[in-house]
Amino acid sequence: MRADRLVSLVLLLRQRGHLTAATLARELEVSTRTVLRDIEALSAAGVPVYAERGRHGGFALLPGFQTELTGLNHDEAIALLAAGSGRGEQVFGLGSALASAMRKVAGALPESHRATASDAAQRFLIDPETDLLSRRLATEEVPATTMSEVRRAVLAGRKLRIHYAAADQTPQWRTVDPIGLVTVRDRGYLLATRSGTERTYRLSRVLAAEELPEPAQRPNRVDLDRIWRERCAQFLSGGDQITALVRVNPARREDLVSTALAVRAEDPDADGWLRLEVTFQDSRHAEWALWQLTTDAEALAPQSLRTSLRDSAAAIAARYGAPT
DNA sequence: AGCAACAGGATTAACACATC
DNA sequence: GATGTGTTAATCCTGTTGCT
């Protein structure tokens, strides 16, 4: 534990140049006295750390002192920074370990690349809380060459030409201004603008991609998590989509979820069934999905959906009820 | 310009507590 | 008991500010 902290202390000083004992204590989550002891230990170990007393004082490393984190290339550093830039700090109680690791990764990069890598990392969002599609899908493969082209354009801030196959449409070439990349479980999305309009593209539907030399029109700083949440909310409330409150037999839950567009809430119901808030493409889609589940599901709301299902059932009963 | 008061920060010491 | 850490207090150093 202490050895880790000593390394973190050196890297903090290396990155930030000059820090007071109080600041170091806050960063390392120890008392200032412990920081002073650590400084003393580093000094005894030969690390050229020195103190400047008085106002504007603090601790610093002698210029030219270097630490090495070998075997880490630029792409690896970006990948690690991206992994640590999202909600990673909340995962498994490893917040301080992750923060320490991120300092080491950032510290390992050459001074000239550090800002670029940190800026690049904010263009990636890994496993946000919100998902566009809650249903489970098979892993979506994206050809390495396509992915590489998309990633390069996102990182370099250049326009991107993609051959995109939207659902039920003939694939078309489009030129977009990439903002960032988001992965959700097995799926990847490209957040971009096209002619100033916000767009979200499924990476698995990008058949080919080509980075263009022109710079993309995009803000210098982005909050990818916020943008993603906004687009999810927009998606879930848009078009002719309808959200139904459904009771379902747990044995058929996957069948329901696999046909739905999204599932927003899920709670156990009184008799062992599940109560789900499910979004469908439109009312016909909802009716079809619930029809497949026969008596293993019941739409509680909206009333129009219940009425449609009842009318369909009555029509079927009338058709087959009468003797031939 | 010179001086004193003040503020901010480092330094040192003593002691207590927790863990191994 | 050794080690690591936290708390408290006194002291020293240095830069800033205001006054003469």
From TrEMBL:
Q: Keyword Transcription on this protein? A: yes
MF GO annotations? DNA binding; DNA-binding transcription factor activity
Q: Which Gene3D superfamilies does the protein's record reference?
A: Winged helix-like DNA-binding domain superfamily/Winged helix DNA-binding domain
Q: Which SUPFAM superfamilies match?
A: Winged helix' DNA-binding domain (SSF46785)
**Which residues are in the HTH deoR-type domain?**
2-61
Coiled-coil intervals = none
Q: Which domain of life is it from?
A: Bacteria
For whether the record's keyword set contains Chaperone, the answer is: no
Any idea which UniProt keywords this protein has?
DNA-binding, Transcription, Transcription regulation
Name this protein carries in UniProt: Putative DNA-binding transcriptional regulator YafY
Organism source for this protein?
Lipingzhangella halophila
